C-alpha cells in the first residue's frame, strides 16, 4: 500500500497539507490516500444519555473529507492523481502511524482542530512525527 498518506481534519492547515500532498503524488506518480477519523469514545456517568450514532459520525467525517477534496479539486491540484480515501473510527495519529508502515510519505498540517492554541505543532502532528515509520512532511 505505498503512496502518500495525508491527514485531513477539515482545518485550513489540513486542506493546505492535502493540496501539497496532491501535487507531490502527481510528481511521484503515486496514489494519494487522504485519511480522516472519527472517535466514538466511551462515557460512563451512571446515567442513560444519548451518544451520537457511529454511522452519523462516519457520514459527517466523509462529508468533511469530500468538502476538503472538492476544495483542492477546484484548483486543479487533483487532476491526474489516483485517490484512495479512508474514513475510519479511531485516533487520527494512531491511524496515520499504522498506515505509515506501508507508505512512502505521510503529510500532515502543522496544526489541526485539537484546540491547543499557541502550539507550534498540534499534538497529532507531534505524535506522527515521533512515531511514523516513513518520512513525514509538515505543511504550514
Provide a short characterization of the protein structure.
The chain is an alpha/beta fold. It is built from 4 helices and 5 strands; from the N terminus they run βαβαβαβαβ.
Describe the 3D structure.
The protein has 140 residues and is an alpha/beta fold. The chain has one domain (4-139): HUPs (Rossmann fold, 3-Layer(aba) Sandwich), CATH 3.40.50.620. The protein contains 4 helices and 5 strands; from the N terminus they run E-H-E-H-E-H-E-H-E. It has helices at residues 12-28, 54-74, 92-100, 123-131, and strands at 4-7, 32-38, 86-89, 105-109, 136-139. Strands 3-2-1-4-5 form a 5-stranded parallel β-sheet, sandwiched between helices. Strand 2, helix 2 (54-74) and strand 3 form a beta-alpha-beta unit. Helix 1 crosses helix 2 (54-74) and helix 3 (92-100) runs parallel beside helix 4. The longest helix is centred in the middle third of the chain and has 21 residues, at 54-74. The chain is globular, with a radius of gyration of 15 Å. Mean pLDDT is 87; it is low at 115-120.
Low-pLDDT regions: 115-120
The tally of helices reads 4
Sum up the overall morphology in one term: globular
Mean pLDDT, nearest integer? 87
H and E string? EHEHEHEHE
Beta-strand segment tally = 5
CATH superfamily: HUPs
Which strand-content bin applies to the residues?
A: 15-25%
What's the level 1 CATH class?
Alpha Beta
State the CATH architecture.
Answer: 3-Layer(aba) Sandwich
N-to-C CA distance: 26 Å
Helix content: 40-55%
What is the topology?
Elements: E1 4-7, H1 12-28, E2 32-38, H2 54-74, E3 86-89, H3 92-100, E4 105-109, H4 123-131, E5 136-139
Parallel strand pairs: 1-2, 1-4, 2-3, 4-5
